[in-house]
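From the thread on structure requests for the teaching lab: each student submitted one protein with a one-line request. Submission from student K.M.:

"Model LysR family transcriptional regulator from Ruegeria pomeroyi, tokens only."
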Amino acid sequence: MDIADLRFFDCVARVGNMNRAAAELNTVQSNVTTRIRNLEHDLGVVLFHRHSRGVAVTAAGEVLLPYARQVMTLLADARKAVTQDGAPEGPLNLGALETVLALHLAPVLSEFAGAHPAVDLSIQTGTSRELVEMVLAHGVEGALVCGPVAHPDLEATPVFREDLCIVARRDGRSLGQVLGAPGVRQLVLRLGCSYRQRLEDVLARRGVVGVRTLEFGTLDAIRAGVAAGVGITLMPRRLVTRVWGEAGLALHPLEPGEAEVTTDFIRRKSAYVSPAQRAFLEALTRDPPIRMAG
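Reply posted by the TA:
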């Protein structure tokens, strides 16, 4: 087993097809098949189930996959550590919540891009759960997620603090009346969204259970649904006042212990911190260290 075997294995696992893996690796399909078979023989296990549409990773393959990616990441980090001269440059792949991207990152990105033109920055959005998994799986170097985050393999730096509120259609009703209305619905992003879980906790503490859940793909869709009276949602107050606009919306405050939420920048503890990542984190945490909600 060598690094080339692991690279072939990772590519096949990711694309689920020997031919597509061969095209991505710029080789022939027979070479990919031979590499995988040799790796399976070396380990004494079957790594893929073959089927008509391609391949699927076996249980043994699932065990090997994170180790393979860790080895490749470690070698890539070692190369960066000895070749980079300290100036931020090259690719920087990060993740962020959509709310954080909408609220905070535009000025940070503008400043960062101007100061470090040699960095090729890409940002993927997702739920907190998805982003944590991406960082752990070496899919991104770091991510901005809803805190607190407690994981033995992750280091978390608080960056932003916001106040959450329940958002409903503006119709003059109190929060108690809104939550007590028959058929109340919560409008949320997909499972794994941290605000979704917090809203469920807030409702449960008020004795509101059995609420119907409607999932939406974007924040804009949630805003439109709330303004139309389809249901309620939970969002940072500043997202509503500064990005969405308050037209047609009512913001219902929560108790301090329920309202406060921190955004953390997370990264793997053992991972190499590139000059580009270090510069980006410095831009995020520049005075004041935690940017307060306004």
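TA comment: Residues 129 and 264 are 13 Å apart (CA to CA). The longest strand covers residues 154-169.
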